[in-house]
Amino acid sequence: MQTRCCCGAVVEAKALEEESPLSYHLRLGCTECANWVTASGRLEDITPLVQRTLWSNEARHELDRLPPYIESLVREEVESYAAKEGRALITVALFQEARLRGKVSWPSAAKDRLANVPAPIRSMAKVEIERMAIEQGLSEVTEALMDEAKAKFLGMRGRQ
Ligand SMILES: [Zn+2]
Questions:
Q1: What pTM does this model have?
Q2: Which residues of 5-26 are buried (b: 16+ CB within 10 A; e: fewer)?
Q3: What range defines the domain where residue 65 resides?
Q4: Centre of ligand 1 from the C-alpha of residue 3, in Å
C-alpha cells in the first residue's frame, strides 16, 4: 500500500510505538514536506503501510540496553530473522522471538494448543511461554507449562 501526502509526495513509515499487543501507533512522515500522520490499530492493520524494515521504539530500546559490542550482532541477527519471516516491523515480541529461537522446542501437542491462541497475541504468547520455559530450565514446552501459561494470560485457550 502507498500513502500520499496532500502535497503529492509519498509518506513513509518513520516510527512505531507499541501501546499493547492489540494497539500500535505508526507515525508516517511526508518525504517532501513537514506533514506527518499517525495510523493506529492492530499490527496486521498497519503492516501494509510499511515498506522498509522499521524497529518499534520499544524494540529499539531493548537493543540499546545491550552492551555496544553485541548490539550490532544482535541487530543483524534480528533483522535477518525478520527478513526471513517476511516481517517489516520489528516489535519487542519479534525481537525476543528472534533471540530465543531454537532454544526451546515445541512438541506437536503444544503447537496445536498455541494455534488456538488468538492470532493477534500468538507471537507474544509464544515468546512468553518460551521465556517461562527457559526460566524453569526446560528445553521443551510441556503440558504443565502450557496450563500455567493459560492460567496466566487472558485470552489463551487450550484445546478442550
Ligand atoms: Zn507533503
A1: 0.74
A2: beeeeebbbebbebeebeebbb
A3: 53-92
A4: 11
